Structure formats: structure tokens, C-alpha cells
DNA sequence: GTGGTCTAGACCACG
DNA sequence: GTGGTCTAGACCACC
């Protein structure tokens, strides 16, 4: 009925993630304009405050920039995207290896697990 | 006051995780007694209520059982350890593949990343 | 200080029971908002933490769902009410029959007892 | 492995219940000697303190009497048994009807439920 | 405003 | 000694 956000991760970060991923997959390009806070709030069925927070967070990270009176845009600097992708990838990878190691799995078992999971799951 | 818990994950769950990992690595065995709530609170430098919550949660999951007036013990059933390991492994794996896929990586790139990371890191 | 909770059953479960009964009797409907933790605490004259625990427990059982920053609501799925009624009824019934059997009463005597009691009482 | 007491009801009361039920079913008669605290503790695989508490509780209720140096005996007064049975029966019945009424069941549905339960269950 | 976590300190029943 | 409940009061992130 309402929106479809779950998991314990805050909604404003889940929305930021969605934008990150679209960026990384080149569905969004540097210079592209994002929907207005209000518009985005309607699309995602979320409180405008929450979108505002999403945009602020992304601006803080240098992913987007707001131009007064014009709206919010993906940062022009192209590096940003690859930097971002690299950083996210490395973070995810690091967390994964750390946890799996704590579970006592070897590198081979991790690789094996991924293969099984991406096929079976 | 100066304990070392971080991340946004609640402390009571982080402590549960620590115990899970010790179980999975066979440092704890079925039937073993856990420190009393108060003792554990001292060791981890958190409030006894927080440990109480950790223990309740673990009991709810069937990992642990309490014997009235005697303490809290790792559940006797041997299966639970393997179940736990499987569940934790699957969760980690699932999260990893999901995030990497959203970042646009293929299965091969994931495997490659792990190999690089475990050697270089 | 002067609330009216008795029995050895924990207060937080007694409050959950009250809500369950209101649900089963259709005084509460799926989607209805429950009073906030603080408000409910005032109404029932118990500590907010105790209500928090009630709400957590009910969420764990799927009776209730919390929407971040908005409050706690009766789960939308209509089935849960009937499931709940069935479960509660069965539990009560089971306990009754078990105890009466242990007291050496036959099914006929139980039925007889109920008839007498509901008329006389 | 250990003893087989469950449910949240205290062990000392569960043991008292067992004795009550044997009394009500005439398996124990007024004047019969109960096992010593120590003996009973061994039989039930429970701490002697717990049995002591059981016996104290039963003495408080007038069900048993202790004769110094001889042991613990079922109270001689025969009425005790029937009184007890009546009281227990009424209590159970009262609780049952109260709860079922709160669940919105009619007398007929209660009777029906018992019939179903004692056949099907 | 909302729910969620945490601390501090108390009390209780149980074994 | 053990775990379990409760209160008081605080702080937090989120909407």
C-alpha cells in the first residue's frame, strides 16, 4: 500500500543507493538533472524531508551539486563516477572477505560460494 | 564508557554476532556455559541489560538455552552450529552478490576481485 | 505506581494480550494506528520501555508493523486477525483440557461444568 | 539429559501440581507418606532446595503435614482432597470461561471447541 | 513527532 | 548465584 522500503537501512540512504547504482551503471550521467525534491518525493512516495536529506548527503559526498533556482545535478566532474564505483566496490569487497574469513571460509570456498549462489539462487 | 562498539548495528546484536562467530569457529561448543549476564557485562563493558537482551535474542533463535538458576548454555543440539554457519554464510553471500550486481559487476569480476583482494590485502 | 496489573505474567505481555483481545473482538482493525509508545505508557501507567517491549514483541509476531517516524500499526494483512484468534483459542482450549484431564474429569464433566458455570456465574 | 521441566511455571509448583493431581485421582490417599525431600530430589532430578519449597508450599495450603522425625504426610483430613479438587476445578473453569468470553466465544462455541479438541487433538 | 537503544539501578523468583 | 522484569531518564536517527 505505502512505499516499499524495508531493511533497517534508513530510507534516505536507500534512495541515495538507488541513485548511486544508476550512476555507476551509466543510467545517469554527469550533468544530468535530478528530479526536484518535491517531484522525487512523489515518485518514491516518501516524505520530502527524507528526499532533502538524501540530496544533502549526496552533495556532502560530492556526487551532486545544487544550482540555485535550477535544481540538483549530477556533478560534472567525470572522475566522480569511477571513483565512486571503485570506492563502493572496494568497501563491499572488504566487508565480504572480512566476514567470510571470520566464518572460517577460505578464499576458494568464497569463490565457490559465489559461483553456486549466482547459479542456484 | 570506552568500549569499542561501532557501526550502526545495535550493541546487543554485535555481541550476539561475536558469540555466533566463536560458535562457528568451534571456539564454543554445544553445552558450553556462557558467562553470566553480569559477568559478560563486565567483560564487554556494557550494561547488564544489554547483555540480557543479547541472550534473549539468542534464545529466541534457538542458539542458546537458559536453565533456571543455572545460567545460559549453548544449545545441546549439534545441528544448530551448522545451521548457524550456513545461515550466516548465506546471508553474507546474498548481500554481497546483490550489492555487486547493483554496481554492475559480473560474476567473473566478483571472483577476480576476491582473488586480488585476498592476495593484495 | 497504582496500575492494575497482576498475575505473574509480565506486564508487557499482559498489555499485548489486551491488544490481542481488542483485535479479535474487532475493536481494532488492520491498518489502525496504535497509540505512540509514550502515549500508551501514560494511558497504562507503566514505563515507556515496557510498552516498547510490548510493541516489539507484537511486531515479532507479525501482529503489528512499525513505520519509521510514523508509528505502530496493526498489520494490514487481514488473515492475521483470524490466525490470532485461532491461535489464542487453541491455546486456551488446550490448557483447559489438559488441566481438567489431569484433575480426572471426563469430557462430559467439562461440558457440564461450563454449562453450570455460565448460568450460575 | 537433565530433567524434563519446561513452561514458565516454576519447577517447585510443577512438582506440587503433580502431587495434587495424584491426590485428586486417588493415587495418593490421606495419611500416605511422601518421599523425603532428599529422595524426591533424586527421583525428580531437581535441587533439594526446590523440593523443600514444594513441600513448604503444600504445607502452607494444608495439603500435607510434616511430623518431626517421621517425614511428610498427606493431611489426614479427608475433606482436604475434595475441597482441593473442587477449588482447582472451579479456578480452571473460571479462567477458561473468562478468557473464551474475552475472545468473543459463546457458551455453545466453547462446548463445541472442547468436543472437537478432545476428539481431534 | 515517532520508534529504538542504552545506562543505571532496583527488585523478584528461582535453584 | 542465576536470569527476568521494571522504572527512570537519556540520547539517537528518522520522518
From TrEMBL, chains A, B, C, D:
InterPro entries: Tscrpt_reg_HTH_GntR, WH-like_DNA-bd_sf, WH_DNA-bd_sf. Keywords: DNA-binding, Transcription, Transcription regulation. It holds the Pfam family GntR. Gene3D superfamilies: Winged helix-like DNA-binding domain superfamily/Winged helix DNA-binding domain (1.10.10.10). Residues 9-77 form the HTH gntR-type domain. Transmembrane segments: none annotated. GO terms for molecular function: DNA binding; DNA-binding transcription factor activity. SMART domains: HTH_GNTR (SM00345). This is ArsR family transcriptional regulator. It comes from Bacillus inaquosorum KCTC 13429. The lineage of its organism: Bacteria, Bacillati, Bacillota, Bacilli, Bacillales.
Amino acid at each position: 500500500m505505502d512505499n516499499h522500503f524495508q531493511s533497517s537501512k534508513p530510507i534516505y540512504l536507500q534512495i541515495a543507493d538507488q541513485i548511486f547504482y544508476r550512476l555507476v551503471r551509466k543510467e545517469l550521467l554527469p550533468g544530468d538533472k535530478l528530479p526536484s525534491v518535491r517531484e522525487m518525493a512523489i515518485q518514491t512516495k516518501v516524505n520530502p524531508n527524507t528526499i532533502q536529506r538524501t540530496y544533502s548527503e549526496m552533495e556532502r559526498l560530492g556526487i551532486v551539486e545544487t544550482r540555485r533556482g535550477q535544481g540538483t545535478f549530477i556533478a560534472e566532474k567525470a572522475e566522480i563516477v569511477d571513483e565512486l564505483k571503485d570506492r563502493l566496490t572496494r568497501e563491499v569487497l572488504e566487508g565480504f572477505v572480512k566476514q567470510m574469513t571470520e566464518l572460517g571460509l577460505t578464499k576458494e570456498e568464497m569463490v565457490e560460494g559465489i559461483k553456486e549462489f549466482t547459479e542456484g539462487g
